[in-house]
Amino acid sequence: MDWDDLRLFLAVARAGSLTGAGRALGVRHSTVLRRMAGFETKLGLRLFDRGPGGYALTAAGRELLEEAAEVETRLVALERRLSGRDRRLTGTVRIATLGALAPWLAEALAAFRALHPGIRTEIAISHETVSLARHEADIAIRVSRNPPDSLIGRRIATLVHGVYGARDHPPLPPGAALAEAPWVTYAQGRADLPQARWVAANIPDSRIVLRTDHTGMMIQAVRAGIGLGLFACYLCDADPALVRLRTLSGLGLDLWILTHPDLRDTPRVRVLMDHLAAALAARRPALMGRMPSGDAAQPETGEGGRPAG
Fold this sequence. Notes:
The protein is α/β, with parallel strands linked by helices. The protein contains ten helices and twelve strands.
């Protein structure tokens, strides 16, 4: 079997749809459909049942999935080990990160580029989980309670969160309880986030006036006076349109920079990881809610958190 066919099959099996598989592989929906049909024809087997709920594995598909996943694990492990033996300070390093950190990372990467012009970077920004074990990235910058034991790295800071409202459009009268105000929060798809769970536990559902899966949209809604919101302080403290009404430090979220053990001694990964860790550590006052005015990170502006897995 061709490994490209197996990669395609694994992507469809994991996503449960052609669209999701295409997004994961960076190809068009029509390309996935054509190649998947060709793979099934080549095997003489039907691997998926197509239904309104997506692509469900047949018995043959389930059997192939088990074997293909094992092949993938071995090939990716080999790729990581070989990559880890590359001693040159050249090549590409792939970073998975959060859109909110983009201004800080761009500044850090500009300084890094001057030091190591032979190293190129690719940056993936999304709140979707990426897998360092499957070598979907070399370095991940994540917000997490407990990163997987299979990864190594360092904790940059424990994040402090706050309840924010619009400075010029206060959504509740002075002295009123926070639960009496209108609120914005995350949609169901991100309801597992600690911020969303805090809102669900402390604010009546009747007071939720807007839900979205996008942090930047939530911040804009709060700025416009639609309601209160709960955010990491580094996103909002320097925004003159927002005011912090309460500080919360017990959500248990830390900012980490991580890599896979097979890559820790790869020079290009190590030097970039050390550089980014130092640059982010310099931002600890902001991350911990003690930021001087005018030094905020920006909320994500594109599609796309939760840390990569």
